[in-house]
Task: structure prediction
Amino acid sequence: MLHDRRIPRTRANIDHLVRDALEGVPVVGALYFVAADWPLFGGAFVTRGVHVLWPKRLAKLLTSTHSDDDGEPVDVPATYARLAAAFPPS
Result:
């Protein structure tokens, strides 16, 4: 995971990464809660295009969203490397 990244040419850091750095890779907003008390059935929802869910449900969402704007499979290691290069550690 890429956490606490420096915004280039500033002293600021960022916890959420911007869509422009990914150029064509699908970006989905997600807010997840690690220790929330979720109901046994359901519980996850989407509001204004942002998924609200728990970690295992987020992992399922991320692995099911696997193609770019052209329908090609997303190269996860290359995407990770692109983000790491665009946003170095703070």
Notes: Helices lie at 55-64, 76-86.
